[in-house]
Amino acid sequence: MSSKPEQKETHQANGAVLPIVPVNCLTSPERGQLVEPSDFLGPDGNGVEVVMLESRANAKGVREEDALLENGSQSNESDDTSTDRGPEPASPLKETSFSIGLQVLFPFLLAGFGTVAAGMVLDIVQHWDVFKYVTEVFILVPALLGLKGNLEMTLASRLSTAANIGQMDTPKELWRMITGNMALIQVQATVVGFLASIAAVIFGWIPDGHFSIDHAVLLCASSVATAFIASLVLGMIMIGVIIGSRKMGINPDNVATPIAASLGDLITLALLSGISWGLYKELESKAYVNPLVCAFFIALLPIWIIIAKKNAATREVLYSGWEPVIIAMAISSVGGLILDRTVSDPNFAGMAVFTPVINGVGGNLVAVQASRISTYLHMSGMPGESPETAPRKCPSPCSTFFGSDVNSRSARVLFLLVVPGHLVFLYTISSMQGGHTTLTLIFIVFYMTAALLQVLILLYIADWMVHWMWGRDLDPDNFSIPYLTALGDLIGTGLLALSFHILWLIGDRDSDVGD
After folding, report:
1. Does residue 174 have a pLDDT over 90?
2. Among 383, 304, 366, 398, which residue's Cα sits nearest to residue 492?
């Protein structure tokens, strides 16, 4: 079959040879613009159908002519009907403030009640012997609760983005993403749990100058076991949530990260309390139990590393994703040191029940925003591309909260959820007599001020950090959320401790003194 000079090669489709014309010959200069099929005259004068295929320019400026052979389309074009595709998920670009709020509200309240339950648990277990005599366990609390930001929320954001851009549409792709990511978070959980115990030992030793090898091994065994089991359970829940969201037509970015936190705080704190209490009981009679627990979970590391390395989707994170989770763990441990010093003071005993709430709510909201911005950027290409969407300078607060784009709209919606959400959670704590506290007007004012300031700072930092990382060729799904949730723990604990201290100074004792 002869062809005209501009016809570069042919494409076999349904037994017929169809010529393919390069896009740059017949399209407008705009990249990625789709062109309708045209009729060209063949040698016999009859019309010959020319198939136009979308392609991307590679680094050398050469266009790939068969874009249908790419593994998983990452195009955000919605008017391409030339191929048979499954139903596309709703684009975040078309969401209204009402739809964002409606999708976020239920997971937000669910996550909030999870943090309330975690606060009630912490309020009870703070009187257990292991928390009284091994006070470094308090330092582990924010670091291990922060694992939901370091691991589970990062997993949720990563899988949400993969689902939104069509990388989990086939059973084979879905299974590959599940196995690789589950193995990856087990590696990260074990290592981060071990490092968190070291940080707790160091932070506990510096102020007092007291060190106990038995307590150090107890902290290591409790931290590693808690991190491993909690990450395994929560990772499985996350995968189910994201698959269910896709089938229901809900944007996973709006629901996955809050649900990760709803059970994350409660499960992690309950595991930490139970495991540390059990190991503390065995400390005197069976001292060998704690080292065996540490050795068992560390011995499993090579298995998870091998599985994660075999998966291309997680291999890069396995090598390069350690910096954010380790630094985030260190930041959360500083918040744990603040918690340890304040809870041990009888004047601030009621603070234990509120710390998981304010930290959890702030972390949940900023994780949703970071995940949404990351998905928005992924729809324009790969990290490092589209520099016009990834400014490296700090944005102005006005552009973050009062812009007309979808990310500013979601920031406003998330910020407006803070006050009504915290009022519901405070009422729940008060009705359950958590911390033996009485909610006075001045306490509510100081608490709400701390909560609003925390979320305001976090949303602004998220807007800058996600775009900055994108411009630096870093995937925000893997790098931003650990930093943001760790900063939420530190800022929330610090502001709450400051509020309690001011309330104590001005004499509002009914609000902050526990029985």
Report:
1. no
2. 366
Does 128-344 match 96-123+347-514 at the fold level? yes
The one-letter amino acid at 365: L
What would the two tokens of residue 243 be?
Answer: 């698959």
CATH architecture entry for 128-344: Orthogonal Bundle (1.10)
Helices 441-471 and 351-378 pack at an angle, to 10 degrees, of 30
Closest CA to 184 of 146, 154, 140: 154
CB 369 within 8 A of CB 410: yes
Residue identified by tokens 């996350």 is 238
Q: Cα–chain-centroid distance for residue 221? A: 26
Which class in CATH covers the domain with range 96-123+347-514? mainly alpha
Report pLDDT for 89. Answer: 41
pLDDT tens, residue by residue, 326-377: 888 888 888 888 888 888 777 776 788 898 899 988 988 998 898 888 888 8
| Rg, the chain, Cα only | 26
Which tokens belong to 273? Answer: 């309390």
Whole-angstrom distance, CA of residue 118 vs CA of residue 515: 20
User: CA–CA separation, 378 vs 393, rounded Å?
Assistant: 20
Give how far the C-alpha of residue 338 lies from the chain's centroid of Cα atoms, to the nearest Å. Answer: 24
Nearest Cα neighbor of 160 from 475, 414, 462 is 475
pLDDT digits (tens, 9 = 90+) for 50-78: 444 443 334 333 333 333 233 333 333 43
